Amino acid sequence: MKCTRCKALACVALPSHHSGFCKDCYPLFFTKQVETAIRREKMFTRDERILVALSGGKDSLALMFELNLQGYDVTGLHIDLGIPNSSEKARKKVEDFCDLHGLNLEVFEMEKWGLPIPDVKAHVNRPVCAVCGKMKRHHFNRIAREGGYDALATGHNLDDEVARLFANTLRWDTAYLSDQGPVLPASEGFVRKVKPLFRLSEFETANYAFLKGIEIHSDPCPYASGASFTHHKELWGELEHRSPGQKFQFYQGFLKKGKPAFAGLEEEIGAELAPCSECGSPTSAEICSVCRIKKAVAESKAKAAA
Ligand code: SF4
Ligand code: ZN
Question: Is the pTM of this model over 0.80?
Fold first, then answer.
């Protein structure tokens, strides 16, 4: 196959775009998709400060690399979860990446904050990933809000978005369907959330990271259950294989036709919000659920030690 742009030998075939690219032209395709996402969805401008959530995986590092290349004012945020034999490796990848490219980085340590994820696993009677995800979202938003950032960018790609949309649709979860999308506008206590990679698949992002020589953290988390959307992603992989372009059509169709039909139903998610008396994050109770979990774990540890 020849490169659609320069006619050299292509190294990446993209059936969903009826095209293929060589190693020099592929990054231009990637850049264009990110530019289009930011422009069409009005995600942010070059005058705004963007906090980028960096896990150390291909998506978040590729996103940071690309936004910096495009001249945006970006700072990385890594959350060190404190998981033995895992978190230190992810953190090292992120720190090395930011050092190499001269990028600003903030690191937040769950251990220092008082609740490393192993303590959640040992003391909270809920699936560890559900609580870990909640903690990460909480701190991303809190740190972005306290740091006065204009937006929080995450590396969610098209596969992530389609898998989540599919899961929400299977449950007809109207409240979540009403606010799923590449941009979640700022509201009281919440910063704007954006997903500039939503037009690109996991495969496309992985290719970009590889061609740019980005060293990524790819070891699975030792606590991963494997359940999180994996099955739905496999199903969509099969559909996409049979009919290239299906994933993007499904997601775009939702944004244009489905999402407006659910508008206004987000109120179902929560009641009136006020700042948490402990951490200032928006909550419908006096103390937010994350601070409540932290307190409960501290009590459980104290009891176990007594
Ligand atoms: Fe957290 Fe679960 Fe992800 Fe591990 S797999 S980082 S515990 S959400
Ligand atoms: Zn709180």
Answer: yes
